[in-house]
Amino acid sequence: MADETDVNAQITDAVTQANLLVSGSAPAHAAGANLQSLAHSLGLSFQNTVSAQQQNTLQGFSGTVLETWHLLALGAAQSGAAASSLGRGGPMPSLPRAPRRTRSVGRRSARRL
User: Fold this and answer.
1) Between the CA of residue 103 and those of 96, 106, 107, 108, 112, what are the distances in Å?
2) What Rg do the C-alpha atoms of the chain give, in angstroms?
3) Would residue 112 count as lying in a domain?
4) Domain assignment of residue 75, yes or no
5) What's the rounded Cα separation, in Å, for the pair 39 and 17?
6) Residue 33 — φ and ψ, nearest 5°?
7) Stretch (H or E) spanning 86
8) 29 pLDDT exceeds 80?
9) CA-to-CA distance for 75 and 51, rounded, in angstroms?
10) In a domain, 102, yes or no
11) How many CB atoms lie under 10 A from the CB of residue 40?
């Protein structure tokens, strides 16, 4: 030490060592925080990937159900033609709409006042 002070030399040495310890460990703490941030963002990326895969699977299932429903709604001759069209990768043929059922107006459907 260049200057003599009233403070004990052991105290100044301890304070100096503590300051060196803090400044020496700062790069390690910064690297640790950086790695934690990287791990967190990577985890979020994996969660988003799994969510997208689940949504794609649900869309595939709903498409399969819809096409199966269309095939079952057709007659026997039409369903064979539609199945062969789908097997070749063709579009689903348009389906005729079923006639709507109308309610008969009678005693049961009349409103009571």
Assistant:
1) 22, 9, 12, 10, 17
2) 38
3) no
4) yes
5) 33
6) -65, -40
7) helix 76-87
8) yes
9) 39
10) no
11) 10
Structure tokens at 66: 């819809």
Whether the pTM exceeds 0.85: the reply is no
- C-alpha 110/C-alpha 102 separation (Å) is 14
58, part of any domain: yes
Rounded Cα gap, residues 11 and 16, in angstroms: 9
Confidence check: pLDDT of 104 > 60:
no
C-alpha 59/C-alpha 35 separation (Å) is: 36
Structural domain boundaries enclosing 69: 9-85
Q: Half-sphere exposure of 65 toward its Cβ, with a 13 Å CA cutoff?
A: 6
Question: Average model confidence (pLDDT) for the chain?
Answer: 77
Q: What SS3 class is residue 51?
A: helix
Query: What total of structural domains would you count in the chain?
Result: 1
